[in-house]
Amino acid sequence: MAVLACALVSGCGNLPAGVDGDLTNDWKPLPAATAFRPATGACHAELTQTGTIDNYSPVACTESHLVETVAVADLGAVTTLDAGLPQAFAACSKQATAFLGADWRTGWVVLQPVLPGKQAWAGGARWYRCDVAETSPVDGALVRRTSSMKGTVKGSGKLRMTCANPTIKGDSVTEMHPVACASTHTAEFAGLFESTAKRSSDVSSDALADGCDRAIAKFAGLSDDSSLASRIGWLGFPPDDTAWQMGDRAIRCFLWLNGEKMNGSYRNAGPAKLKIHYSD
Fold first, then answer.
1. % pLDDT > 90, the chain
2. CA 213 to chain CA mean position, Å
3. H-type helices in 102-252, by residue range?
4. What is the chain's Cα-based Rg?
5. CA-CA 20 to 30 A from 176: which of 124, 140, 162, 231?
6. Given pLDDT bands bounded at 50, 70 and 90, which one contains residue 79?
7. What is the top-level taxon of the source organism (predicted)?
8. Other C-beta atoms within 10 Å of 3: how many?
9. Cα distance between residue 171 and residue 205, in whole Å
10. Mind listing the pLDDT tens digit for each residue in 37-52?
11. In angstroms, rounded to a whole number, what is the distance separating the alpha carbons of residues 244 and 195?
12. What angle do CA 207, 208, 212 make, to 5 degrees?
């Protein structure tokens, strides 16, 4: 038994040539662990608010996808995920505008900043990912694409808000059907105004009217005076409360002449074309 025990423990004999008995001194050190970080330029099948290695499955932008990552960067000195979200949204707004070719808020576009999960955040991850998606003006659903969104809001880009035929039920717009401004339409995108309200639901109808009147006056070449409300009507679209809390406070304003048919753009139309034809 003593001999057997000796054999199990050490072999008790001479070591073969080339074997020194040290099981670790020739092993290469393991590579340092690298934290997960998403890549710019990737597309993804689904929209998400939190990015983890488990839900990260990028696809080529030529394949069917919902969102496209336009930038990945690092947050500044923030201590919580909640504090990081508005900072990421502000930075992503600039990145998305540069990528799309014009202010992303003037297009049929959704902007979604993506932050690390709680576990990764606790471990020191401070990256943020800027994702954009196309949204349908008809029903607000996200649109699956098989191409990049780069430059799609610039100039005559396909996602740029221009002219449309809205479906209106009561006081609500239920659908927007984009059309070329050269064709007959009843609404035209005129611009934005930013609200200081804490929630989108806090924006009053008077505030919407004042803000959209000013945006349309600038767009159409009208004086912002007492006659303005008798010359134009408007449709105003605030962001939903989720986007509002992230930092999107811009109301999208469309010129609307109470259903009157328009042909061509009304940019710089002036008072000669937009005559006084409403009354209190």
1. 84
2. 26
3. 118-122, 205-220, 241-246
4. 29
5. 231
6. confident
7. Bacteria
8. 8
9. 11
10. 999 999 999 999 999 9
11. 10
12. 120
Q: Are 65 and 142 in contact (CB under 8 A)?
A: no
Residue 98 DSSP symbol: H
State residue 276 phi and psi, 5-degree precision: -70, 115
Q: How many residues does the chain have?
A: 280
Q: What is the pTM of this model?
A: 0.85
Question: What whole-number distance in Å separates Cα of residue 258 and Cα of residue 179?
Answer: 18
Dihedral angle at the C-alpha atoms of 52, 55, 59, 65, nearest 10 degrees?
Answer: -110
* Positive or negative: CA dihedral 194, 129, 81, 48: positive
Tokens of 69: 């990552």
Selection from 262, 248, 280 nearest residue 88 by Cα: 248
> Would you state the structure tokens that stand for residue 254, as one six-digit string?
């469309």
CA distance 123 to 120: 5
In angstroms, the CA 138 to CA 136 distance is 5
Cα dihedral 55, 61, 62, 64, rounded to 10, equals 40
